[in-house]
Design goal:
This protein is an alpha/beta fold. It contains 11 helices and 9 strands. It binds nicotinamide-adenine-dinucleotide (NAD) and zinc ion (ZN).
């Protein structure tokens, strides 16, 4: 992470009319939300196939709900960090700005980002597996809640393994990736599809990629600029130089 990288990044960003940013679990790590694939991530303690899938829910809804209840209650103890706020500022500064996230924690909204494409849903959302009922709340719904309208099982409003992503959000994400002037990829291992396909679409369209991740990913060698650092530190570093720039 040298000064040149920061200068080049600011140049790309400041000249862009449309910036597209895509974030993964690493974006929230410095807020204290664990990632899934890192050493101390959820996956080391839980088997995702036993929890984050429709089959798991059908077999053992109480166990799945218990895990989600724990993750929901964690949301009350975390808050957005300075990197989240930098991205909210960019949205206000740049003519067109698209924020795509795989995160379900809602931290981008809480930091002030308005236009967020949440590809994997939201932890705060409860939906019905039988009808269109959905609501945002973090109240304790009991160990195995049922829908008031159709009596089917209520479930967390997130996308599970094997399920389709929300079509509108996904197609907006692909459109933005292909049309933007610079694509910023932050804190994602780049192995969860179709979300990872969004960054691939940007590369295929010849859009320069800026990547921020302490660990290399399949995208790092294709990035125009790769920052081997954490999201808060690097975003604040870019922002300081961008603001100090004389127009
Ligand atoms: P991942 O767990 O597969 O990968 C996390 C990535 O973040 C890794 O590449 C890691 O090197 C990087 N990272 C760790 N600390 C970082 C930091 N401080 N700054 C920048 N990068 C950092 O995450 P993923 O690719 O997003 O895929 C996991 C899936 O699980 C997602 O689809 C998401 O829906 C879900 N998930 C969501 C949350 C959340 O909402 N906060 C947390 C965990 C998992
Ligand atoms: Zn229902």
């Amino acid at each position: 992470m040298d000064t040149d990288s920061f200068e080049s990044a600011v140049k790309l960003l400041a000249n862009a009319k449309h910036i597209c940013v895509s974030t993964g679990a690493g974006m929230s790590a410095e807020s204290g939300v664990p990632t899934f694939r890192d050493k101390d991530g959820h996956w080391s303690k839980f088997n995702p196939a036993e929890l984050a899938s429709p089959l798991a829910f059908a077999r053992n809804p109480q166990k799945v709900w218990a895990w989600y209840r724990e993750r929901r209650s964690q949301l009350a103890t975390v808050k957005p960090h300075s990197g989240h706020r930098v991205l909210a500022d960019w949205e206000r500064r740049v003519p067109q700005f698209t924020l795509v996230t795989q995160n379900v924690d809602g931290l981008h909204r809480r930091a002030g980002s308005q236009n967020v494409l949440e590809l994997h849903g939201r932890l705060e959302l409860t939906t019905c597996s039988g009808c269109t009922f959905s609501r945002v709340d973090l109240d304790d719904l009991g160990p195995e809640p049922r829908c008031e309208q159709c009596a089917a099982r209520l479930r967390p409003g997130v996308v599970w393994f094997g399920e389709e992503l929300p079509h509108a959000a996904l197609s907006s994400a692909f459109a933005a990736a292909e049309a933007c002037d610079v694509f910023v990829l932050i804190g994602t291992s780049g192995v969860v599809y179709p979300a990872a396909g969004v960054a691939e679409a940007a590369l295929a369209a010849g859009v320069p990629l800026i990547e921020i991740n302490p660990e290399q990913t399949p995208f790092s060698s294709h990035a125009a600029i790769y920052f081997a650092g954490s999201s808060a530190v690097v975003l604040v570093g870019i922002e300081e130089r961008w603001k100090a720039r004389t127009p």
